[in-house]
TrEMBL record, chain A:
Broad class of where this protein is predominantly found: mitochondrion
Signal peptide: none
A Pfam family matched in the record: Ribosomal_S5_C
GO BP terms in the entry: translation
Lineage of source species: Eukaryota, Metazoa, Ecdysozoa, Arthropoda, Hexapoda
Domain S5 DRBM: 192-238
Record-linked Gene3D superfamilies: 3.30.160.20, 3.30.230.10
InterPro entries: Ribosomal_Su5_D2-typ_SF, Ribosomal_uS5, Ribosomal_uS5_C, Ribosomal_uS5_N, Ribosomal_uS5_N_CS, Ribosomal_uS5m_N, Ribsml_uS5_D2-typ_fold_subgr
Originating organism: Parnassius mnemosyne
This protein's name: Small ribosomal subunit protein uS5m
Signal found in the keyword field: no
Gene Ontology CC terms, in alphabetical order: mitochondrial inner membrane; mitochondrial small ribosomal subunit
Family from the record: Belongs to the universal ribosomal protein uS5 family.
Automatic annotation (TrEMBL), chain B:
GO MF entry, a single one: structural constituent of ribosome
Example of a GO cellular component annotation carried by this entry: mitochondrial small ribosomal subunit
Protein's recorded name: 28S ribosomal protein S22, mitochondrial
Source domain of life: Eukaryota
TrEMBL record, chain C:
Residue ranges of the region described as Disordered: 112-135
Swiss-Prot/TrEMBL keywords: Mitochondrion, Ribonucleoprotein, Ribosomal protein
Gene Ontology BP, a term: mitochondrial translation
Family membership noted in the UniProt record: Belongs to the bacterial ribosomal protein bS16 family.
Record has Plastid as a keyword: no
Signal peptide: none
One GO molecular-function entry: structural constituent of ribosome
Protein's recorded name: Small ribosomal subunit protein bS16m
UniProt GO cellular component terms: mitochondrial inner membrane; mitochondrial small ribosomal subunit
Source organism of the structure: Parnassius mnemosyne (clouded apollo)
Amino acid sequence: MSLKLFSLRHLFKKPICVTSNQTTLYQNNVVSNLTNFSTSSIACVNFFNKLPAEKLWKSVTSVSNAGAKKGRGKGAGRIRIRDLNRGQVIGVGKINMLWPGLSAPVIRGRELLKQQRLPDDPERMEKLIKLRDSMTKFRRLKLSPIERGWSGARMPGRSIGPPDPIGDDEFTGFDTKVLQLRSLLIMKGTLGRTRNYQAMVVTGNGQGLAGFGFGKAKEATAALRKAKNRAGKKLMHFDIYNGHTIFHDFFTAFGKSKIFVQKKNEGYGLCCHRAIKEICQAIGIKDLRAKVEGSNNLQHIVKAFFIGLLQQRTHQQLAEEKKLHLVEYKAENEYYPTVVASPSVVRTKEEIPKDETLDFIQYVMNDKVILKRKKFPRFYETMPHYDIFLKKFERYRNHEKIRLNLKVEYGEVKSFLNDKYPEEKVESEA
Amino acid sequence: MSLFKLFQKNTKNVINHYNNLQITAISSRKLSILPSIYDGEQDPGPKFFSSGVQALLKRLTRPDFAKVFRKRTNSNLSVLRTPKYKFLTDEELKAEMSKANQTAARLLQMPPVVKVHEPINEVLSKDPALVGYDTSKYLFTDITFGVPNEHRLIVERNPDGTLQNCDHDTRKRLNQIYFPMQGRKVREPIMFADEEKFNGLLEAEKYEYILDRACIQYEPDEPNYQKITSITYQHVDMKTNFNLLRSTRHFGPLVFYLTWHQSMDNLMLELLQSGIVREAVLLMGLRHAIHEDITNADEVNVLVPQILPTPVQLTKPETLSEEDIQMDNKCVDCIAKYITNNSAMKSQQELALQGFREDYQQLVDLSRGLKKAHGNA
Amino acid sequence: MPLPPASGTGRYFVKAAKSIRLIRQGCTNRPFFHISVTHRKRLNSQPVIEQLGSYDPMPNFNNEKLVALNLERIKFWLGHGAHVSPPVAELLGLAGFFPIHPRSYMTAWRNRRTERENSEKQKEAEAAAKTADAA
């Protein structure tokens, strides 16, 4: 296709060039060029200068009705109409001439300008070609990595700012993340198939307040705005344990989507579905692990996670439910038992029925157990080359440590024997 | 031993000297601290391990569980772990707490204070016919399984043909080579070997780090260990940084060291200034147990067993019971006698005691008034 | 386990003759020996029955040669009638576990002799140089 374009451009230029050449020839030095003068006739009218540019472009870009139905003339190989006159100025051409009254004023200061040839501009043609090329390429919207969502320039995962203020109340510190933006097709009696957009967003201030909302509209932006403002009206408050995680592990489900959420230590991060991650960031939860089982329906996952968060119980509530002390053990504190909550009345051992679940995790998870898949050996571990590698690697197993020790002791990799038998220094500059 | 006395005198002088200067300018990197080791005729071991002294030292450590079980960066965990939770009944909680107390006792177990070891110089055989066999020494280590390090058979064959038992340094090195102890290095770490670096650590007040590392690197009866710890203890004493070592396992040996070298008056002053008179009496009891030079020893001996079962004072009490007031008054009287008869820093300690008395009187009035107001009096 | 452990596999034939010998480990220009018990007819490259110690023939930074001996196991294998190779017997002799091996005495004596001869030669050379200077 580019070949076609090139030939087209070449042909376009030709008549112009011919005329300009001739004019210059006549005006500059007629006598010297008389030797090259030919008497054969030149056909100045042809297909390309007989028709206007519009019609010429149409002939190149148009697709037949049948072809358009098949989807031709779209996508990457599509030809676009370009204005080839862009960048061309009357009076400026290949040969850099100064035309008083056309490309320059007649009188500059008190001086009368004369028609003269200026030195050639070698980059003129390149600039023109570049300008023309810039019109052909289709630029995809490029986002900075910070603005980017989950995938490229698509909306899910992108931030769309705080909800619009309601009256005088502004949503300061809030940020909204798009979780889902999809088009819905609806059949209407009069209009046939129409396109609607549905958006799901979550908004939160990162300090416990968050909410999610849906919005539907004919346009994507309108749907997002609706969803955002609806989310702002449906804020919920969540307590965050020690400012970084949830209060306890929990199991939650909505429809066929099941989520197993685990409380984690500080610095663990968010190890979960990307939508759950965005929700956690909106709420202000920093450490958590969540496993989604069953259906991957995004709306169900979001709803299930919010329900689960709302159904959390504080340590005091748990202790009261069980009528037992709730004690926390941390490895970094040598497993010192810290009583985090005590009930008003504590049961004794005799009062606890035999079949009661006393295990904390089992109790808060509602007797659900996370499926832990069996770890299979890596694909290479059963291959013979891995055995060979292990055998070869056996002799290097301590080298790293020894090098480090030598560097600590001597400042470089050498032994005490190097003082006695110094090694020849290799010239590093060579 | 004259050397020992010289050391003792020196340390005392140093400390007194600094006290007189009110610890003003100690900014110089070169510290004029002389190391001292337990190498006198008297062995500190039996006194240190006696149950009475151990109880006193443990109580003087003032164990605060918040500090004992604090988050440690030097534990074997490279990352934090998710906390575990349990539902416990009252009895189970009590059992867990007693278990935690045992853990605390383990964490607070004091490094032993013993006399420095005697050099080993035991020739097993001499064989002049072996002269010239080799120019280097042969070291033979028996690596039989299950033999403790101190009883391991380690002998050397010298180039002159003598076969003898190795000295402590070599023994330690070979034990470390064949039976490595985690954290211990075969060569002395730079932080101990390089005086500049060691002083830098002291200046940065990383006492616990120094002492912990020394516990791993050295044996308690090594002269190097005792030198390093003595310098650290004296530095702590000089800067009155006792709180940095409180509720760690090193506080007991520190107090023992200071008392052994008759320089615990700085600690006494710190105790009086912070208003913990009971521990001051315990310190007197410790001095009596070690040196037996307290004039009002009977009083102290009566008070100490009364004080020991009382709970540790971590914060200032808000209300006082009558028994507390009685006991504290007794303690104050006892300390006043000590100051007049035994103290080396009379004026300062008297001043501190006076300040305590005034504060205490206010507290007593307040608590009595409160009781009256509540109608319990 | 990618390689059989150098410290031995523990598999052996009860009635076959055993031998306690040095087995070279280490690498080029850096000898290091294991003192191991193995079948007498077995090659040194084959897995041994049990490692009984080690011997580093290169003096360390303190000019010492380190030898480790598991005396309990050595006694056990000696009791089973294991043959001891001369280098190991020499080491055990130096350690005071065996009587000094005659070869140790011979080596010492030869070393002393060469040293004596060398010093005599040096003296002669010096004397010759002196006479040459005088002349």
